[in-house]
Amino acid sequence: MKTYFVAAVIGCTLAFAGCQSQPEAPIDPKAQKKVYSGILPCADCSGIHTTLILYRDQYDTPTRFELSEEYMSGSTVKLNVVERGEWTSHKYQEGVSQEDVYTINPEDDDARRQYIKDAINAVEQLDSSGNRIQSNLNYRLLSK
């Protein structure tokens, strides 16, 4: 009798487990990883070669980032810093257009940085208040 009971419990468990389904969403292979790169201005070096990689899951939801910064002295790297963490995306209304804003380290006030997607193939670094940097210098990273 115990054998039939155990078999029935196992059978029911397998039947219920088979009924669960995962939501299906189209997988966009281009949304998995986006790489932006460029040389940003530096106050005490010749430039910061910056590479920002934004990762998304199969449902196109932001997951993690990797930011690599090489502080240059002429053509030589003085310092190489790699940072990893979480990032978020939200819409920003600018005039009549809506732009995507990417925030890396959204939970850390000291490490938070923001970039606005200002073209199909570029993001622009924003200041610490989330505003465009008013400068003649280039704060854009281009998509690779």
UniProtKB/TrEMBL annotation:
Residues 1-17 form the signal peptide. The keyword Signal applies. The keyword Transport does not apply. Keywords: Signal. It comes from the Bacteria. InterPro entries: Cu-R_lipoprotein_NlpE. This is Lipoprotein.
